[in-house]
Amino acid sequence: MMIGGVVAGHVVGLTILGLALAIDGPSAALTAALGFAAVVIFYSIGQALEVVASELEPFQGLSLVLVSYGVRVVGIAAGLWALLSLSSVAPHVSKGWLLLSVAGTVLAWVFGVVFVASRQRVPVYDHEYEPPSAG
């Protein structure tokens, strides 16, 4: 499933980055690249940890995923805030391209994961059906 997210996220993210470069120049492209990179890092780490968590006991796995989510949100938000508020970077930030690259990459990543998951064929081995007894 992760491959679907990676591929779709990169296709849309890099397309937005190219549009930013073509329409508004290097500053817009750099801003779009920062948003795109933040989303790819966020989801890549998260899905890698979900693979690890699936091998743990349910409580431990859920705890790992939830704690990692909090750390990723705070870490990436703090990193972007620190980077985008630098006096040498702030004048070059294009908020519209940042929003578009983040939103577009997130939506594409989620679509890719759902698309691949909906086409997986997971065999289910149930016991043979026995109708309820009449009585």
What does this structure look like?
The protein is mainly α. It has one domain (2-117). The chain has helices spanning 2-24, 26-53, 58-84, 95-119. Helix 1 (2-24) packs antiparallel against helix 4. The model has no long low-confidence stretch (mean pLDDT 91).
Main attributes of the structure:
single chain, 135 residues, 4 helices, mainly alpha
Q: Short description, anyone?
A:
The chain has 135 residues and is an all-alpha fold. It is 76% helix and 0% strand.
Label the structural class. mainly alpha
Helix content: over 70%
The proportion of residues in beta strands is under 5%
What shape does the CA trace take? elongated
Round the Cα radius of gyration to an integer and report it: 20 Å
Number of domains: 1
Low-confidence blocks of residues: none
Main β-sheet description: none
Q: Mean pLDDT, rounded to whole units?
A: 91
Task: Tally the helices.
Answer: 4
Number of strands: 0
Task: State the end-to-end distance.
Answer: 47 Å
Q: How do the SSEs run, as a string of H and E?
A: HHHH
Task: Show the helix and strand layout.
Elements: H1 2-24, H2 26-53, H3 58-84, H4 95-119
Helix pairs in contact: 1-2, 1-4, 2-3, 2-4
